[in-house]
């Protein structure tokens, strides 16, 4: 894998929404759309997955990995004893961009080291109460990455799945935005740096990452501003200067337009 992709993945953060183990003799989930990834592993029994008119028959050792926003049917026919491990999560770069969009991943694959995966996931689920303690919380986070590692060890061994659909210049543009959000960022600057038309950069970037470069930059700039304001160590003018704004008034107008509050109001609300 390209070193720039590895750097981006290294900066990605996993957030677990919910997880569990279910026994089903019948299940009919139709046209479900969720705002996070759906991982569903079939330990026993059979099920059917339908996406965009295509049907997949799921059996032991197979795993579903559905991106956010994908409408799907997940069905266990009546009388078929089926055990499922499921996990809902996001894996984001900078808190706004889905890291897994950088890869071509199948909806359904087979976990070859299924016994190891089942052992880790069962341990992960049993640890739920222990997560209320500091050691338990750390173990939970560690096991969540272990689950990801096992899944991707399988996925990335499949021919072609370790190849990004994103051309190198756009990976570099993404890295530029993530590394140094500042008020000076413009499409013109990117155009001159990468010898690409500004409109082409914006359209293709949104096609690859589901967000425009300007929108992503502004979200990251607001995140950085909020972090600096919450720390309380800098004045509003110093925060504006650190982020590259010409003056505190320009920064305040920008912050108000994106958050509905002036920087001083935001800082007061955090206290």
Question: How would you describe this structure in keywords?
Answer:
271 residues, alpha+beta, 6-stranded antiparallel sheet, 4-stranded antiparallel sheet, 10 helices
Task: Give the SSE layout.
Layout: H1 3-10, E1 12-24, E2 27-32, E3 37-44, E4 47-51, E5 54-58, E6 62-66, E7 72-76, E8 82-93, E9 97-98, E10 108-110, H2 114-126, H3 134-155, H4 168-179, H5 187-194, H6 198-209, H7 213-231, H8 236-242, H9 248-259, H10 263-270
Antiparallel strand pairs: 1-8, 2-7, 3-6, 3-8, 4-5, 4-7, 6-10, 8-9
Helix pairs in contact: 2-3, 4-7, 5-6, 8-9
The computed structural class is: alpha+beta
Strand residue percentage: 15-25%
Point out poorly predicted stretches.
Answer: none
**What fraction, in percent, of the residue positions are helical?**
40-55%
Order of helices and strands: HEEEEEEEEEEHHHHHHHHH
Shape: globular
Rg over C-alpha atoms, rounded to the nearest angstrom:
22 Å
Residue-averaged pLDDT: 87
Total of DSSP H or I helical runs spanning 4+ residues: 10
Measured between the Cα atoms of the first and last residue, the distance is: 44 Å
Sheet of most strands: 6 strands, antiparallel
Say how many strands there are: 10
Compact description:
The chain is an alpha+beta fold and 271 residues long. The protein has helices spanning 3-10, 114-126, 134-155, 168-179, 187-194, 198-209, 213-231, 236-242, 248-259, 263-270, and strands at residues 12-24, 27-32, 37-44, 47-51, 54-58, 62-66, 72-76, 82-93, 97-98, 108-110.
């Amino acid at each position: 894998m390209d070193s720039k992709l590895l750097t981006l993945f290294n900066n990605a953060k996993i957030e677990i929404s919910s997880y569990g183990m279910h026994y089903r003799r019948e299940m009919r989930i139709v046209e479900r759309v969720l705002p996070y990834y759906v991982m569903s592993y079939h330990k026993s029994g059979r099920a059917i997955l339908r996406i965009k008119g295509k049907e997949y028959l799921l059996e032991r050792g197979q795993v579903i990995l559905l991106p956010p926003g994908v409408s799907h049917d997940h069905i266990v026919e009546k009388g078929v004893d089926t055990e499922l491990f499921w996990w809902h999560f996001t894996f984001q770069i900078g808190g706004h961009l889905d890291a897994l969009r950088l890869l071509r991943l199948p909806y359904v694959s087979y976990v070859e080291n299924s016994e190891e995966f089942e052992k880790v996931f069962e341990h992960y689920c049993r640890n739920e109460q222990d997560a209320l303690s500091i050691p338990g919380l750390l173990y939970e986070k560690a096991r969540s990455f272990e689950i990801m590692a096992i899944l991707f060890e399988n996925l990335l061994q499949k021919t072609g799945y370790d190849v990004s659909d994103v051309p190198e210049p756009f990976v570099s543009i993404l890295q530029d935005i993530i590394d140094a959000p500042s008020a000076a960022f413009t499409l013109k600057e990117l155009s001159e740096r990468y010898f690409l038309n500004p409109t082409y950069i914006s359209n293709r970037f949104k096609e690859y990452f589901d967000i425009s470069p300007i929108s992503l930059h502004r979200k990251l700039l607001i995140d950085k501003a909020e972090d600096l304001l919450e720390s309380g160590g800098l004045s509003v003018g110093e925060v504006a200067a650190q982020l590259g704004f010409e003056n505190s008034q320009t920064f305040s107008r920008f912050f108000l337009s994106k958050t509905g509050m002036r920087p001083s109001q935001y800082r007061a609300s955090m206290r």
